[in-house]
Amino acid sequence: MGYPFWTHIALWTYLCLVCIIIVCGSEDNLLEELGLDVQHDIRKINISQEEYVRMMKIYLDNMKNETNNIETVPDLVTFKSAKKSWRRTHLFFPIERLPAQTEVDSSELRLLAPAIPNIDLINISIYQILNRRKRRFITEKIVYPSSHQPKWWDFDLTTAASSWLSGEPNLGIELECSGCQHEFHPLEASVNALVLPRNRRRSKRGIERTDCRTNDANRKCCRHKLQVDFKKLKLGEANSIIQPKTYEAGYCRGRCPLNYNYASNHSRIQSIVHRMNKTVPRVCCTGSKLSHLGVLRVDPHDSTKLQVEKWDNMIVLECACS
Length: 322
What we know:
By secondary structure, the chain is an alpha+beta fold. It has helices spanning 2-33, 49-64, 158-165, 230-233, 265-276, and strands at 75-80, 83-85, 89-92, 102-113, 122-129, 135-143, 151-156, 173-178, 188-197, 222-224, 227-229, 241-243, 246-248, 251-253, 285-298, 306-321. A hairpin with a 7-residue loop joins strand 15 and strand 16 (306-321).
């Protein structure tokens, strides 16, 4: 009685290990193909504001020239700090209100920190000043100082920048440092914002023939929307990706009835043969037209530089039965 039991346990253990190896191997292959297999030491990443602006403009220009680009490409606007004062570190950015029908897609604060000896990491908290007695928590982040040279850090400032650029009072921000031996004063500070028209979610290409048009759960093969967030994928080196943070990947799903949207003559023949011989698999809804994804990321071989890349076959544009 015990022999079959332990045999089954051993078999299940083996199958689980095989599945783990397959999944891990697939992820490793993906990381290698995307160039994300080179492990960055996040403590050494030090991208200057000049390098950031230069490469971001190249990246955005490339995106605007893409014929298959699905979403509207934002513009980059930059503001430098004009004032530092008060008991806590206070930064003020002379930000002008955006034109009507414009909104902030994302924004970040970039600080040039002085060399801080004998400290491995510190925690920076950022608050938006609402009035003399009130402030709003924006974000906090663990950062890694350098003991021998200034270093650039970045923080998500989308909430505050959106309010300022929409016309709300701009009294600046306050920085608090947990772990600093002295009050923290950055050498430089800039706000970078990516701005878009409010109708940004309309596709530049309009509605394609294979995009899903209804909420019918029994619909035929069509392209569904799929928003991918790199950080949520937990792909190890995803933190080296500067842009895009998310992107519309799309996926294909739906029925493939007879004589409906075949990808090729082979698919048509396979569908006919399947009706006569069920051992031949039926055609499935799958991507028939794919596009690459433009990416701005930290250079895997130089942590002070950025580079623009094209990752092939990352976006489904059209679907068909194949």
